[in-house]
Amino acid sequence: MNVHTITEEVFKSLTSDWKALEFETATFPFFADSDRIQTGVVLNQKTLEYLLSTPGTSTIKIRFGFSKEETSFLLILWGIDETGQRLTPYYLAKDPIYRSRPDHTNGGRVPMELEKQWRYYWLTRTNDNEISALNFQVSRGFLKGYNYEMDEFTEALLIDRKANDVRISFVLHEHLPVTYQEGEPPVYTFGLLLHAQTDLQKLKDDDDDDDGYFDLARPCPPTC
Predict the structure, then answer these.
(1) Is the Cβ–Cβ distance between 168 and 156 less than 8 Å?
(2) Residues whose CB is less than 8 angstroms from the CB of residue 142 and which lie 6 or more positions away in sequence, other chains included
């Protein structure tokens, strides 16, 4: 099982290249190809073990990176202690999850469960080539990532004790901005969901199991 780490220099380069996309006016083409849409990444068992086993780790940080060479969006994770000191290497979640482009013959019906709605918004708006820098804007600026307490990762795994990996799904939160005026459209902001993944689920591109998703909702900024 491969564990992918990067140096501080590479970390700064990848996150800097992501930040440079803040003022990109075109839509982002790198979440989809002609046949598939990327719906998330897998954090494999060994990487997860290292993150959760490092003594003193109290918070897991996830930051967004962009590889110009591979033209790909990346998730970079590491652990810190209560003083903010980094205790682990920078880990790359390298295993993408893809799903076939959706069939619109269902008439665009939106599922009722909230987490399924969020995943539906990601799937359909990515399919329609509508993902841009605007989807990564939060009240304090351009979204760099999320911070999570250790308990959120361990609780996600306890949902299914047979699970050995964590699936990190891409979603869009539909909401109204603080500047909302009646009649304006809602905004869609990029988010992440944690979900324990079993060996059986690895055999599929994506799954429709809606139990045990954990919303990761402390964005950076401001929780940087």
Answers:
(1) no
(2) 19, 22, 133, 136
Q: Are 51 and 153 in contact (CB under 8 A)?
A: yes
- DSSP state, 104? G
The amino acid present at 199, given as its one-letter code, is D
Sign for the CA dihedral angle at 204, 205, 210, 216 comes to: positive
User: What SS3 state is found at 180?
Assistant: coil
10-residue averages of pLDDT along the chain (224 residues): 90 97 95 91 87 90 94 95 94 89 53 75 93 93 90 66 76 87 90 75 50 71 82
- What is the token pair recorded at 124? 């359909």
Tokens of 14: 């990848």
Give CA–CA dist 113/122, Å, rounded. 15
Compute the distance between CA of residue 125 and CA of residue 218 in angstroms, rounded to an integer.
23
